[in-house]
């Protein structure tokens, strides 16, 4: 039997070569389409990551680059992008790991390094430049690399980088190189780099180039103790403070005791002067911002504020006869003087009558006094908005009449810092609003390009009414202008101002003078605190210090 498969329809057959090739082509096209789609999608995510990174949205930029890395398409660019993101976040070690895996830059390398230089982040700039390919052949990248090295005070390295580059043909690039070269030339000539300046860019402290220590010339800085809030990567940059050199010098010249003078702009919170004279043997305390002391009678303004807020009927307090002491549950609470007939709150404030304010405090109760103190910032925790200062503190003392009397006049159970005391005066000048105290004005990079500006911001409001605020200013004016006012010796002809004096501490250790106030009285330009440790009574030596300070700056305040 002959088997013939030619006409057997169910026999095995091979597919035509053309049909098989067509399927392969379709598969390849499909793969190409998928890869192309992924490539385009990755491109969009990379582009979005770049934009987000440039806008400073590090978290979202990281998500975009991570999404690309998981695709295994354009992964080296994603690693580069993640490296930049980590550098922006200040994590140099993590950035290094990503950059080692990278290679194809997701960014323009020169632009990345330029961005870091503009922000004063020189370590990040150098880190990225070292991983960028062909930086030595790209003039723009080499110039930015030189600026970064200069920012790290590596003048020799910066000089070598600039020296290897021929004159750029591009005008913008030539101008950039010239600006870097000028800074390098100044650094080489002077051997110093200005670290801190006042608001008018007058140097207050400079680095010997290549050093990590910035000595402060006390004569130049006018008693300013630097260090608070001026550290980290910003230590390599130029910091402009809100310090007004004229006010700073006047305050430093007037305070010849351990203590502090703090002057602020009540409308903006700018710290215009901050003199710190630490006591002998203390080289670490920044008195203006950190020292806490017994406030004394300046607290009477807050006791009055509490009474006004509570609508206390002052006819239940005044007039009365001050005999110099008050019975507090069988114990005598003493005044610093016998004031005899005290007619009203104006006289009580002008003469700083302890008995009058103790009676007001007892009528209100200790908890009402404590609430008012806290309305003005006492017992506030440290805040990111005000990192350079300490707020005043209240003690959990018994709510008996003696401790209530102490609360009323600022003795024993309370403490305050000079800057906080100045802020309280500022609140009275600024409709009850306490501004964020701002020592920093601006930060600039090595090329004097600003990268951070400090802006005014309200820290909190005391909630006092305009009528009550006006009452506080009125009685503070009496302190200076009344014939029996404790601040009469501070009066400066032609300059109306308003203050409250305070004397605290212990007589056997030497009394402290404390004064707060605003000047001029109408449309105040400054609010201030003077704390003179061991100076004695505020009505005497404290008033002399204030008079000398205001006399020195009178013309400035009158303009």
* Mean of residue pLDDT values: 87
The outline comes out as elongated
Number of alpha- plus pi-helical segments = 20
Instruction: Label the structural class.
Output: alpha+beta
User: What portion of residues belong to β-strands?
Assistant: 15-25%
**How many β-strand runs?**
18
CATH superfamily label of the largest domain: DD-peptidase/beta-lactamase superfamily
Instruction: Tell me roughly what share of residues is in helical segments.
Output: 40-55%
CATH topology (level 3) name of the largest domain: Beta-lactamase
Number of domains: 2
Radius of gyration over C-alpha positions, nearest whole angstrom: 35 Å
Low-confidence stretches: none
Instruction: Report the span from N to C terminus.
Output: 129 Å
> What is the CATH domain class of the largest domain?
Alpha Beta
Strand order of the largest sheet: 2-1-3-13-14
Biggest pleated-sheet summary: 5 strands, mixed
CATH architecture of the largest domain: 3-Layer(aba) Sandwich
Any overview of this molecule?
By secondary structure, the protein is an alpha+beta fold. The chain has two domains: 32-190, Serine Threonine Protein Phosphatase 5, Tetratricopeptide repeat; 249-558, 3-Layer(aba) Sandwich (Beta-lactamase), CATH 3.40.710.10. Helices cover 45% and strands 15% of the residues. Helix 3 packs antiparallel against helix 6 (122-131), helix 6 (122-131) runs antiparallel to helix 7 (139-151) and helix 13 runs parallel beside helix 15 (354-364).
């Amino acid at each position: 039997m002959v088997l013939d498969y030619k006409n057997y329809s169910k026999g095995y057959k091979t597919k035509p070569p053309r049909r098989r090739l067509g399927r392969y082509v379709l598969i390849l096209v499909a793969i190409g389409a998928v890869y192309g789609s992924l490539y385009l999608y990755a491109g969009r995510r990379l582009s979005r990551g770049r934009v987000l990174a440039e806008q400073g949205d590090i978290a979202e930029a990281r998500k975009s680059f991570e999404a690309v890395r998981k695709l295994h398409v354009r992964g080296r660019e994603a690693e580069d992008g993640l490296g930049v993101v980590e550098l922006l976040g200040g994590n140099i070690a993590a950035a290094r790991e990503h950059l080692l895996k990278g290679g194809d830059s997701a960014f323009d390398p020169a632009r990345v390094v330029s961005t870091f230089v503009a922000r004063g982040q020189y370590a990040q700039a150098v880190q990225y430049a070292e991983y960028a390919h062909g930086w030595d052949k790209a003039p723009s990248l080499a110039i930015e690399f030189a600026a970064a090295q200069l920012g790290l005070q590596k003048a020799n390295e910066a000089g070598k980088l600039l020296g290897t580059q021929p004159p750029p043909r591009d005008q913008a690039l030539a101008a950039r190189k010239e600006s870097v070269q000028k800074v390098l030339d100044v650094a080489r000539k002077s051997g110093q780099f200005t670290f801190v300046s006042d608001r008018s860019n007058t140097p207050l402290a400079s680095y010997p180039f290549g050093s990590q220590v910035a000595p402060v010339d006390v004569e130049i800085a006018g008693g300013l103790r630097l260090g608070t809030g001026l550290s980290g990567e910003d230590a390599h940059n130029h910091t402009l403070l809100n310090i007004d050199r004229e006010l700073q010098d006047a305050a430093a010249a007037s305070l010849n005791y351990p203590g502090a003078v703090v002057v602020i702009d009540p409308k903006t919170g700018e710290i215009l002067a901050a003199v710190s004279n630490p006591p002998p043997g203390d080289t670490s305390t920044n008195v203006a911002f950190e020292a806490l002391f017994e406030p004394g009678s300046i607290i009477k303004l807050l006791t009055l504020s509490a009474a006004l807020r509570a609508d206390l009927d002052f006819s239940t307090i005044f007039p009365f006869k001050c005999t110099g002491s008050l019975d507090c549950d069988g114990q005598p609470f003493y005044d610093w003087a016998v004031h005899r007939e005290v007619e009203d709150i104006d006289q009580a404030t002008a003469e700083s009558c302890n008995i009058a304010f103790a009676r007001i405090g007892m009528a209100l109760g200790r908890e009402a006094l404590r609430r008012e103190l806290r309305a003005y910032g006492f017992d506030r925790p440290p805040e990111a908005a005000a990192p350079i200062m300490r707020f005043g503190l209240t003690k959990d003392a018994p709510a008996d009449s003696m401790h209530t009397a102490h609360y009323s006049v600022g003795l024993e159970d309370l403490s305050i810092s000079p800057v906080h005391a100045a802020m309280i005066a500022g609140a009275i000048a600024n409709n009850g609003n306490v501004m964020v105290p701002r020592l920093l004005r601006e930060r600039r990079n090595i090329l004097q390009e600003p990268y951070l500006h400090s802006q005014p911001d309200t820290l909190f409001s005391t909630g006092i009414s305009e009528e009550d605020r006006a009452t506080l200013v009125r009685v503070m004016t009496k302190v200076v202008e009344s014939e029996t006012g404790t601040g009469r010796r501070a009066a400066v002809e032609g300059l109306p101002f308003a203050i409250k004096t305070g004397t605290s501490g212990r007589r056997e250790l030497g009394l402290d003078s404390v004064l707060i106030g605003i000047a001029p009285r109408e449309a105040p330009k400054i609010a201030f605190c003077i704390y003179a440790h061991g100076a004695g009574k505020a009505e005497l030596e404290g008033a002399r210090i204030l008079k000398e300070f205001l006399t020195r700056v009178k013309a400035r305040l009158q303009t």
